[in-house]
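Hi everyone, sorry if this is the wrong subforum. Our group has a chain we'd like a structural model of before ordering constructs, and none of us has done structure prediction before. Sequence below.
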Amino acid sequence: MKYRDLAVVRGGGDIASGTIYRLYKSGYKVVVLEIEKPTSIRRTVSYSQCIYDREVEIEGVRAKLCKNLQEIKKAHENYKIPVVVDPDGETIKEIKPKIVVDAILAKKNLGTQKDMADLVIGLGPGFTAGEDVDVVVETNRGHNLGRLIYKGKAQPNTGKPGNTLGFTTERVIYSPAEGKVKVIKDIKSSVEKEDVIAEVEGQDVKAKISGIIRGMIQPDLRVHKGMKIGDIDPRNKIESCTIISDKARAIGGGVLEAILHYDICR
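Answer:
Right subforum, don't worry. Here is the predicted structure as tokens:
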């Protein structure tokens, strides 16, 4: 395998991992930057899980937790994606990538700027193409999902989960209190409505619908009241727990298009 340009992706959650996977499979040398305690829900398809498990494989592509430039280099030599704890993006200054993708999906800009690389891409709301990033990729489901925006912003956050078999907010599991999460039904578990699937500070968290646990936050992580800690897929198909989602693939395709368009125009 011959690598193309070096790309840094800020964030390693499930949506970010669709981009990470697609860039790697297209030959880009990718480095992932994460926070110290990621709160990804779809842990089985998130490269951020390297922070807890050291190594992760998603659809045949492996990533590895790295602590320094030497380990990053070794990971690339072994065709693994290095994941680094670096919420402030200091690694970007050290390795000087051609491409930076902000895939944190924080709904606001947490410090990404156009001068970080030759091409800087922001996913979703919180960025303005032509100002703090070069390109914005639309992340809202619908006709424009994955569309590139070269001037202006993505659609505002709706705050509404996607519709699956007629279920929206019912699919999402929120914490009833502040405290540590005790996971009772983890990812890939089939559940019925009203089953207890977790506890937070002694308070039961119950399933609002029947289906399969597609996402569940890292056990024993401290959360705040109202925080998203899991989701249930009513289609009850195990593959939804182990493969990259259609949304993540579409957004990853948009990022790849932006990079290739930049390549042919420079």
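For your construct planning: The longest helix spans residues 246-265. Residues 16 and 219 are 21 Å apart (CA to CA).
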